[in-house]
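so im writing up the methods section and need the non-specific serine/threonine protein kinase record in one place, dumping it here so i stop losing it
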Amino acid sequence: MSAPPEPEPGTVLDGRYRLDEILDNGGMATVWRAADLVLERAVAVKVPRGSTGGLRREAKAAAALTHPHITAVYDYGEAVVADVGRVPYVVMELLRGETLAARLARGPLPWREAAAVGARLADALAAAHAAGVVHRDVKPANVFLTPGGVKVLDFGIAFTRRGPESGPVWGTPAYVAPEAVEGAEPAPSADVYSLGVVLREALTDPDAPGELLALCDRCTDRRPATRPDAVRVAEALGRAAGVPVGVAAVHQPSAPGPGGAAPPRNLTRILLEDPARESGRRRAWLVAGAFVAGAALLAALLLWRAADPPRRPAAAPTAPTAPTAPTASATSTAPSPPPGECLVEYRVTNRWPDGFQAEVAVVNLGDAPVDGWRLSWEFGRGEQITQLWEGAHRQRGRAVTVDAPGYDPRIPPGDAARFGFLGRGEAADRPEAFTLNGSGCRAG
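--- predicted struct ---
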């Protein structure tokens, strides 16, 4: 039997999504690099092969989740294409990087790096479990390493207790929990088993602490009831790696004020992906993730490919410091960078009648970390922030202050903190001056 016809490059789905090139051509679906012709951005479009029920289930599972380490779904539709027929599709966040499987194929990870990846993977699974969703296919090929962090991919066979579309018991055999093989109903403990197998593959550094290897053993215990939950795994790995964990705060959109125009549909949140910072040549992969949008907040993420911020030469490796305790905002005792030791990159990335969106990167050019950062500026035309994410803000007249999010308050030397917002009014291209914890910053 011949394979069903598939769309050709250049096909436009529903007058909006132009398929440009194939990124991944797997057995279950084809993932395309595509262009959103309405919002003028690069996206990824997933088109199934054969049965289409799983694709819709994937989009539904994604819509229940909101987490910085879960990939975003923007849209689901079914287009009619000449000579092909009905084409269901999911529009997703476009990612740059490689899978954990590809990274491990090149050699072992240092144990702290492996623990940090595991902490963020466990953190994402904890958020899914809290929403009643079990991934069911946790494996290195579904963990994507981007310059901006870890992303969990492919909820295509996810199980949710909120609907009848649970599907059969599937998964990749090497990572499936014993009870799942025997036909038990999918449960969070089965994802933890798979997580333990992934950790065991990643933690091959001979210097890895024994407690981390013992954690792998507890995760892969044949008795589901004795396994730790994903929250505890994330906390243990986060402490070992010196990285913060915990579901990030999600800011609900503000209603537009009198006379204010609402932003276009499907424009409610932006993810600012850190640009690649690699010495030497390395192939960049554009790969689509598989999900998350949050029923109340996420319908779209815009990929920002800013130029690399200036960086100082890397210092000799040192043991990671323990993460600072999360706080809701910076305090008056937060250290101030010396004048000129910070750079603010401010970009207006979209405009519509009486509204706009902007993205901001705060770059630490100093030799010491900035903890509990607070950025201030004044708008030039009386703009008003209506929604901000990856931080908390206050505004009085033209004066704006943005505080670090409690889950990620530190800017290491040579690194950047990023946030984005929606605004009302006619946006100037960039405010004239910025201050970070009371000291002036260069504007770039």
